[in-house]
């Protein structure tokens, strides 16, 4: 065979290839740089029509370079088998003088691993390695068998691994994560934040980690409401506009749907803005390029959709006016017309509440729930059917578990809306919450499924004709499952898309080696083996699907520890137990807010001059003023921050605790350990109304009823808290059962300096030793006078199912020469709120008290 190596090397890399560059999200200098690099490598660049905002003669284009899939010709390009790649593809191809796999550089958000180059440490089992490689490839990423400078993620079990040591020694710019990270990415169907999985000290392994950080996402900005609340905003002035932005309305004819019900004045305002942008108003669908309406119904909506015209709602129109740039109405869910009443599936029968979302995220979810046809409730009650939450560490989740209310993440809502049908909640994607992660980080990443919308609301004329025929004869009905089926969209938004997205249409110089990670070294045999794997991505994906079905997934090498299985079994049993008595008196409002760094970043330039130094950090508990009104919450908190009051969510960082009355919520009880000043809700009323901070002493929290009921004077408790300085439970190891709300009480124990461990009847290696009160400072020891030093505590519930856990606990205490004491949650609540160790016989549990 003739050796053509030198011949190929001498040929220009992009010879006979034609490109166009979409300037959205790219600077003018960057566009020029990309074009010059392509031409220098033998390629042709057809200019993008800035005025029209479209790609002319699309059929002649081989590659479209774009930072996003949000441009008018994206879906038509896919239909024509044209590759859409990020600008990094051009850079990397030129760097290695080889055409690389364009799929791994796709701006398609469904390929959520597109920026990932994975390498597995030596300690990862071979079966798991192949499963990870197959999954990464299927989701648009790359893998390397050897560590290199291009590696972005090193998957390892510990820092002791040789490759981890090498990465640290060479200071490689990568993230070393547990395999749990990849497993969770595949479970959720999106790339999750690596922070909780980072070695050497991953948060998911730390049972005493603090509150889950709040989430900030820009994906839903200006796309939270399908019905704008005011007139359209004006575009930015020319000197602030993007240099090469796509003009939204130039040459476009826009038609308004009758269901918009626009008054003449507002219609004239909108029309004038469209005409100022080079567009015009159409009165017939056949003459329009753009159709704007509220609902997915009516002859005009169907005709416009079937004709391939751009169809969106008024929010979408306002968005383009404000930004003077085109955007796909299906890119953001609240930009596409809503389903007509009664909504989608059985949502009309649901009453849904949300937890742990604030600001725009809360408004977005509220409107999404209503658009689906469900009833949104601002307060969470027992007649709710579902709770949408960003994580399970909230009091609403605890209440939901006790009341038997379904807990799901927001992906269930978004998938149902995108697929135009209620998605089954049995899919783990909707009930899984990655540890230490706020699901709000993924909010708004979903797009509408074009094929699903088409099938549900505007089938082609042929399909409509078939449907009419089927309604007239039972014979035709039997053919309904073989005719007119919608094709699976290229952008599939469910966890099952691994099977449909693997194949990539071949064009130009595509070859098998394109998937190989640059910089990977090894023998020719190793490269051949890698080639073989890359040519059989589907086989790898199938292996992955088998791997994740094993107990332990790709985390434990196929063998999961028995104790983990027991824990999961008991957790399932706990979910089935409803109606148990709540030890926390009330379900507090949303616990999540923005942390200090996020608040400081918001509108920093505009507010910097007016921002007062932080004078107080306040935690609010039991106050319902912002419940269901995320916008008002954001406004009020911003105003308070400007006058020096920073409203936080972390009980460890407060000097003022605000509540309408004394409540026994997690936040309130944990915050008492800080020794804060207690104020009632009128303090906030005054600060917001007068835009200044009042003297906290003028708004004291009335604790008379609480003192009468529980015998605790909170003013004395605050004094003792300042003495204790989080050391009240220092050297205490306190056990707590799952049903006694371990996830709640561990935070209260930690706030007071102790260690709380879950007791699930398993043998533990924890050493429980006697406490020496004299080792504590005098100011602390005086609050520990009733501590006997040798008592080992187990927080439990007076339930028959709990009794079986007590025997082994007593054996553990005896083993360490300690006195076992099984107590109700009242013991810890009273100790933490009084800030002193004391004892009442009524708090002790025994077999005799169960059921009485």
TrEMBL record:
<dbReference type="GO" id="GO:0035361">
    <property type="term" value="C:Cul8-RING ubiquitin ligase complex"/>
</dbReference>
<feature type="compositionally biased region" description="Acidic residues">
    <location>
        <begin position="586"/>
        <end position="598"/>
    </location>
</feature>
<feature type="compositionally biased region" description="Basic residues">
    <location>
        <begin position="602"/>
        <end position="612"/>
    </location>
</feature>
<dbReference type="InterPro" id="IPR001357">
    <property type="entry name" value="BRCT_dom"/>
</dbReference>
<dbReference type="Pfam" id="PF16770">
    <property type="entry name" value="RTT107_BRCT_5"/>
</dbReference>
<feature type="domain" description="BRCT">
    <location>
        <begin position="136"/>
        <end position="199"/>
    </location>
</feature>
<feature type="domain" description="BRCT">
    <location>
        <begin position="347"/>
        <end position="430"/>
    </location>
</feature>
<feature type="compositionally biased region" description="Basic residues">
    <location>
        <begin position="548"/>
        <end position="560"/>
    </location>
</feature>
<feature type="region of interest" description="Disordered">
    <location>
        <begin position="457"/>
        <end position="528"/>
    </location>
</feature>
<feature type="region of interest" description="Disordered">
    <location>
        <begin position="542"/>
        <end position="612"/>
    </location>
</feature>
<feature type="compositionally biased region" description="Basic and acidic residues">
    <location>
        <begin position="561"/>
        <end position="585"/>
    </location>
</feature>
<dbReference type="GO" id="GO:1990683">
    <property type="term" value="P:DNA double-strand break attachment to nuclear envelope"/>
</dbReference>
<feature type="compositionally biased region" description="Polar residues">
    <location>
        <begin position="470"/>
        <end position="479"/>
    </location>
</feature>
<protein>
    <recommendedName>
        <fullName>BRCT domain-containing protein</fullName>
    </recommendedName>
</protein>
<dbReference type="Pfam" id="PF12738">
    <property type="entry name" value="PTCB-BRCT"/>
</dbReference>
<dbReference type="GO" id="GO:0006302">
    <property type="term" value="P:double-strand break repair"/>
</dbReference>
<dbReference type="InterPro" id="IPR053036">
    <property type="entry name" value="CellCycle_DNARepair_Reg"/>
</dbReference>
<feature type="domain" description="BRCT">
    <location>
        <begin position="9"/>
        <end position="107"/>
    </location>
</feature>
<dbReference type="GO" id="GO:0005634">
    <property type="term" value="C:nucleus"/>
</dbReference>
<dbReference type="InterPro" id="IPR036420">
    <property type="entry name" value="BRCT_dom_sf"/>
</dbReference>
